[in-house]
Design goal:
The protein is α+β, with helices and mostly antiparallel strands and about 270 residues long. It is built from ten helices and eleven strands.
Length: about 270
């Protein structure tokens, strides 16, 4: 029996299931379980399953689409099946509205109650008193030991200058934290769920920057969300530098060109 079937059967009392592998990224296994009777569900193996469940519940509590958590245990998560993803083609506007709703939920401080991780890369979430300090100490400086020395020096030089570029105390918006198009489920013109969150509280433009890293939101998105404040292009590069560094750690030096692009935008 597939291990995820065994876990789901024990947790939810399922009978025999058909297992359909789903695209789960590079860091976890995700399957659709189709029981002989009853609706299908999605099961995921993850060392941080319980933390992810709390994040999905936070998204839902903010009033945005997210899969319902059916069961969470160490290393194992069971969720509502959102069905077939048809892509964001017609759903950019609804995504903009959902993201505005998400960012309207704010916290008392930056960060999250616990650290998180992308695979082996720990993401530090301890609170700081101001936002530039959070971005420097929790998002950029932890990568200095893991990049070539020339890049390390540029990051070390950049971090003390962040107060010149980033707002000191923006609203601590609830962030998805890893918002690229592949983490948005849609059917036609409807967003059915935001998945694979890495939530914390911070500047709302972090999610916007991530959404622009590997794609281009359409005018319908910006019309629904609202136009970013002046200077977004530079802040976008600063915020994209973090996922660029994550990709270098996870997938290798081929992503150093993305780091270079971000740094050169800031230094231009």
């Amino acid at each position: 029996m597939h291990p995820l079937v065994a876990h789901a059967s024990a947790a939810l009392g399922l009978g025999s299931c058909r297992v359909v592998p789903l695209h789960g990224g590079d860091l976890s296994e995700v399957v659709r379980l189709i029981p002989d009777t009853g609706p299908s569900i999605v099961a995921k193996s993850s060392p941080l399953a319980e933390a992810e469940a709390q994040m999905l519940q936070a998204l839902a509590a903010a009033g945005v689409p997210a899969p319902t958590v059916l069961h969470a245990a160490p290393g194992f998560l069971v969720m509502e099946d959102l069905g077939t993803d048809t892509g964001l083609g017609q759903a950019w506007g609804p995504l903009g509205a959902s993201l505005a709703q998400l960012h309207a939920t704010t916290g008392a401080s930056y960060g999250w109650a616990c650290d998180y991780a992308f695979g082996s890369v720990v993401i530090q979430n301890a609170a700081t008193e101001d936002w530039p300090s959070f971005w420097a100490t929790r998002r950029l400086m932890p990568f200095v030991p893991h990049v070539p020395i020339a890049y390390a020096r540029r990051i070390e030089d950049l971090c003390p200058r962040l107060p010149q570029f980033l707002p000191a105390h923006p609203p601590a918006a609830l962030l998805h934290g890893d918002l690229w198009a592949g983490n948005v489920m849609a059917q036609g013109a409807r967003v059915t769920g935001l998945i694979d969150p890495a939530c914390y509280y911070g500047d709302a433009e972090v999610d916007l920057a991530m959404l622009c890293l590997f794609g281009h939101p359409t005018p319908a998105f910006w019309e629904a969300y609202g136009a970013p404040a002046p200077g977004f292009e530079l802040r976008r590069a600063l915020y994209q530098l973090f996922p660029a560094l994550v990709h270098v750690r996870l997938f290798g030096a081929g992503y150093l060109s993305l780091v270079t692009r971000c740094l050169e935008t800031v230094d231009a």
